[in-house]
Specification:
mainly alpha; 353 residues; disordered N terminus
């Protein structure tokens, strides 16, 4: 009996030591009639001897389980349960991570699909809006000026055009040349200019002047005429044309004789006769009278430009006003042109409907 108990304790201690050393995977097998333990170690396979030889009822008669063996069995069972729990927890974590990854992938796919649908809807909406806008533009009448605005625009354009023509006429070569030369004056006109009175009132006042005052007025008139003659001498003379040269030659030779009641009529008849003879001449004969005319015209143009720049320059304010008027006219003409095009388009749309 004592030997049996000793063998039992030694087997249980060996099994417990083997279990602690190799971190075994322990499985316990129990029976209904009693406790029969079996130890299996992986990777080293160790089998512990059964503590008791089981009978048909599952337990040898008169045998008892040692407390040390029972404690070892409980510890082995607890270790096995802990490892099983850890394995289950690891599997659960792995399954959960896999599930979360799959959910995240599905969520990303759904978000991408949703974004694609939204973009498609936005494009469709934009296309529909653009189509509706084009349809509205084709069907809706174009905006035109009202009668009041149109009248005001036309009036403003006409006024600007009139002012521009007046300014351009005032700075033309003919006007500047005329303005650079003093006007011819008589004794009465000079007196009216000095007194700043009308001609009728000046004619009445000049009769009241004394002889010395008349002499002084006459001296001023002569001084004015001398100044005018000096200015006229500065004016470049335009070259005569071939026909004028021919007329002067005919007048000097006296080959064409005319008779008329007045000098004006005589001059008119003389020019007619010269014109008829000029037309009957050949081209070579005409060129002889026009020889050197182009060079003379170029020299006259240079002299005239220099004269006008010195004695009749264009004021800077006038140039700025002309530029502003041109810009204003361009804007007004563009407004009227666009309005006319829109009115024509509206009338055509109305006729098609």
């Amino acid at each position: 009996m004592f030997r049996l108990a000793f063998n039992t304790v030694r087997a249980a201690a060996a099994a417990a030591a083997a279990a602690r050393a190799t971190v075994p995977r322990i499985a316990s097998v129990g029976t209904q009639a009693g406790l029969a333990l079996e130890f299996r170690v992986v990777p080293q396979t160790i089998f512990a001897q059964r503590f008791f030889a089981t009978t048909s009822t599952g337990r040898r008669s008169g045998s008892k389980i040692s407390p040390v063996a029972a404690d070892a069995a409980r510890k082995a069972k607890a270790a096995q349960a802990e490892r099983a729990r850890q394995e289950r927890a690891a599997k659960q974590l792995e399954a959960r991570a896999k599930k979360m990854k799959q959910q995240a992938r599905e969520k990303a796919l759904r978000a991408a699909k949703r974004a694609k649908e939204l973009a498609k809807r936005a494009r469709a909406k934009a296309l529909e809006k653009a189509r509706a806008k084009r349809v509205a533009e084709r069907t809706a009448p174009l905006r035109t000026l009202s009668v009041t605005d149109l009248t005001r625009t036309q009036t403003s354009r006409n006024a600007a055009l009139k002012r521009l023509k007046a300014l351009e006429a005032s700075i033309s070569e003919k006007a500047r040349l005329k303005a650079s030369i003093p006007k011819p004056l008589t004794l009465l006109s000079l007196f009216c200019k000095e007194k700043q009175v009308s001609v009728a009132k000046g004619a009445a006042l000049i009769k009241t002047l004394s002889e010395s005052e008349l002499k002084s007025l006459q001296a001023r008139l002569e001084q004015y005429q001398a100044k005018r003659a000096e200015q006229l001498a500065r004016v470049p003379k335009a070259p005569t044309t071939g026909f004028i040269r021919f007329c002067n030659e005919m007048r000097a030779k006296g080959e064409i004789q005319v008779t008329a009641a007045t000098p004006v009529q005589a001059n008119r008849e003389f020019v007619k006769a010269c014109s008829a003879q000029w037309k009957s001449m050949s081209e070579q004969e005409r060129k002889a009278y026009s020889q050197g005319l182009e060079q003379a015209r170029a020299e006259y143009r240079q002299q005239l430009d220099a004269y006008l720049a010195k004695y009749a320059p264009i004021p800077k304010e006038t140039q700025q006003e002309i530029q502003a008027l041109k810009e204003k006219l361009a804007s007004l003409n563009q407004t009227l042109r666009v309005n006319a095009i829109r009115e024509l388009a509206n009338s055509r749309r109305a006729s098609r409907m």
